[in-house]
Hints:
This protein is an alpha+beta fold. The protein has helices at 27-35, 75-88, 96-105, 131-144, and strands at 9-19, 42-49, 52-60, 65-72, 109-118, 147-150, 155-156. Strands 2-3-4-5-1-6-7 form a 7-stranded antiparallel beta sheet, with helices on both faces.
Amino acid sequence: MSLFEDSRYQYRDTFFVFFDKENRPEVDKIQACLAELGPKYEVTNVRNTDADFESITVMIPHDCSAMDIAYEDSEEVATQIEEVMQEFQTLTLVGDDSKKLVQIQSSTARFDIFHFEQVSISGEDEILDPGGLLLVMQKLCELVDGVGLDPQSQALL
């Protein structure tokens, strides 16, 4: 079940990891990569085509967050890359960010990371901690030699 269908979670934002589809990991490599983060990261709803990764859910209760992560390599990826390149034309990038933008431009696949906040049952305000999301994005970038993007802040990871 997707977190979009789970009333315990509220959708917050979408983040991306762009990479070459030749680096598409097998599902067991994704699971092993995420297992390195420790037992506080609960992996569920693993879906694959043959051995290739399709989607997964990661729950991070200590951060009051969760993620649905899905693989995409359709024409939509190329369209989004064009949009990203247009958005970044107005920014001055230096150092690694310039290299990361070039890498995004040549990407042929991406992970869509749908970030959710756990809804408080007690009525108390829980604080959504983005730390878990950033660690997951970093691990995925390392696994596929990719570049992470927070489109809201236009930050490259």
